[in-house]
Design brief:
The chain is of the alpha/beta class. It has one domain: Rossmann fold (3-Layer(aba) Sandwich). It has 13 helices and 10 strands. The strands form 2 sheets. It has an 8-stranded mixed beta sheet with strand order 1-2-4-3-5-6-9-10, with helices on both faces. The longest helix is centred in the last third of the chain and has 16 residues. 43% of the residues are buried.
């Protein structure tokens, strides 16, 4: 990434591989699955050029960052602790935290658990949601019905999806990225998993790369996951019920910091019900932006629009000041 530096940082008892750029008020960017700090390449450049200090880690389980063996090491308490530990290691008292996909619940957890460390929060693709009234896997199984299995439920068995994805890393990554992007036609979008079928049977690589993903971009992901495997990222999903069990203290909690949500109209993860409830769960909601035709990979598919929205938000919530 142009004008950025990459280094290893000891934080929260693990090592995080971190991309940094710029000076000014700190902004921490938290990626999702199956991604890397590289998924923020367009934002690292634009936000640092706009006068912000940008910090984008490969999160726990990804890339060159630590990959603890225990599944329980990937719960939200640990992941939020990584963000705050990273801030402490870098001498940052307060930051704006931005999350995409799985990064969204991580930054929500940081905002709720360490409110004094968060100036503002932004979610991409996955909106903030209040703690559910029952374990998430119960709802997912009910929604899937008898003939299908929800993908998060499928991921619960250690080693199964891990091996499927590793069998052909390039095809796995490209097929999944394509199938929930805004460019995939209806017949090539991610299909529900039928019982007895594999996760990787739900998508296929496209005939050609989408315009927002170059061969060089794809190679970064393929090389990283060929080395690291997918288990670290999948272990995040294996904690969904544990996260619920451990978060009873947050039932009814409200995000008090200034907040922003950005998603695509073709994003299957956008959760319209949670978006409608954002004014109830977020006290200072500064905007909800739905990008027409955009899919799940918000900041990669629509970098210019996302950068403009984020920079306007950052200027608003920081006063354009530096730390």
């Amino acid at each position: 990434m142009m004008n950025s530096a990459r280094r290893q940082v000891q934080a929260n008892g693990i090592t995080l591989d971190v991309t940094e750029a710029g000076t000014g008020f700190p902004v921490v960017l938290c990626h999702g699955f199956p991604e890397l700090a590289y998924s923020w390449r367009h934002q690292v450049r634009a936000l640092s050029a706009a006068g912000y200090r940008v910090i984008a880690p490969d999160q726990r389980g990804y890339g060159r960052s630590s990959k603890p063996e225990a599944i329980e090491a990937y719960d939200l308490d640990s992941l939020a602790g990584d963000v705050v530990g990273l801030m402490e290691a870098l001498g940052i008292e307060k930051a704006v935290v931005v999350g995409h996909d799985w990064g969204s619940p991580v930054v929500s957890h940081v905002a709720l658990t360490y409110p004094e460390r968060v100036q503002a929060v932004a979610w991409l693709s996955v909106p903030h949601a209040a703690r559910a009234g029952r374990p998430p896997l119960d709802s997912m199984r009910e929604m899937a019905g008898p003939d299908h299995i929800f993908y998060i439920d499928y991921f619960q068995a250690p080693g199964i999806a891990d091996a499927e994805l590793m069998a052909d890393v390039r095809a796995s990554l490209l097929g999944f990225l394509w199938s929930i992007s805004g460019d995939a036609p209806r017949e090539e979008r991610f299909q529900p998993i039928k019982r007895g079928r594999r996760f990787v049977d739900s998508f296929s690589p496209p005939a050609r790369l989408p315009t927002w993903l170059s061969e060089d971009d794809l190679r970064v992901y393929v090389d990283a996951f060929s080395e690291s495997g997918f288990t670290g990222g999948l272990n995040w999903y294996r904690n969904v019920n544990r996260n619920w069990e451990r978060s009873e203290r947050l039932a009814g909690a409200i995000v008090r910091q200034p907040a922003l949500f950005v998603t695509g109209s073709r994003d299957p993860a956008r959760n319209p019900a949670a978006i409608e409830r954002l004014p109830e769960t977020v006290a200072d909601l500064r905007g909800v932006h739905i990008l027409e035709g955009c899919g799940h990979w918000t900041q990669q598919e629509r970098p210019d629009e996302v950068n403009r929205i984020l920079i306007e938000f950052l200027n608003d919530v920081t006063g354009g000041t530096s730390q």
